[in-house]
């Protein structure tokens, strides 16, 4: 898998608005939050689908997007990323973590610092 390299500051200065928007640079940089969730008990498919449905409902109600949540059975943990419509803010990430921690089936939620959604690789939060 090829990793995208973030352009240098010199290249950023030499790009116009249209190029910055196309490359997600400068004012058009989009941030994401990586989240890892560990459940109190191993969830069966029906319980995981119920949790995932409630999580996606909350995310959509808050005008956010998620990716990568899921995995294979048994569902003891899952991780993924949260992305905002323009760029995720720390307040949005904190609200999502608070919602997840309030769920009865969730034992632990770990979050990473906000990262560049275009140029940083997704890594499981440990």
Beta strand %: 25-35%
* CATH superfamily membership of the domain at 30-116: ACT domain
Round the mean pLDDT to the nearest integer and report it. Answer: 81
- Rg is 17 Å
Level-1 CATH class name of the domain at 30-116: Alpha Beta
Q: pLDDT below 50 for ≥5 consecutive residues: which ranges?
A: none
General shape: elongated
Q: Any idea of the CATH topology of the domain at 30-116? A: Alpha-Beta Plaits
Helix proportion range = 25-40%
Oligomer: single chain
Q: Just name the CATH architecture of the domain at 30-116.
A: 2-Layer Sandwich
Major sheet attributes = 5 strands, antiparallel
Number of strands: 5
Helix count from the secondary structure assignment? 4
Measured between the Cα atoms of the first and last residue, the distance is: 22 Å
Give your account of this protein's structure.
The two termini are 22 Å apart. The protein has 126 residues and is an alpha+beta fold. The protein is built from 4 helices and 5 strands; from the N terminus they run H-H-E-H-E-E-H-E-E. The protein has helices spanning 9-13, 17-23, 45-61, 90-101, and strands at residues 31-43, 64-67, 75-84, 106-111, 115-116. It has a domain at 30-116: ACT domain (Alpha-Beta Plaits), CATH 3.30.70. The mean pLDDT is 81. Strand 2 and strand 3 form a beta hairpin. It comes from Pseudoduganella ginsengisoli.
């Amino acid at each position: 898998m090829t990793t995208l390299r973030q352009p240098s500051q010199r290249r950023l200065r030499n790009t116009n608005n249209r190029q910055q928007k196309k490359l997600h640079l400068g004012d058009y940089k989009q941030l994401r939050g990586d989240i890892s969730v560990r459940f109190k008990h191993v969830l069966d498919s029906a319980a995981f689908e119920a949790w995932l449905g409630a999580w996606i409902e909350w995310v959509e109600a808050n005008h956010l997007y998620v990716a990568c949540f899921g995995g294979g059975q048994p569902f003891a943990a899952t991780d993924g990323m949260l992305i905002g419509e323009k760029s995720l803010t720390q307040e949005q990430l904190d609200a999502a973590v608070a919602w997840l921690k309030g769920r009865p089936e969730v034992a632990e939620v770990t979050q990473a610092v906000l990262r560049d959604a275009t140029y940083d690789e997704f890594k499981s939060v440990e």
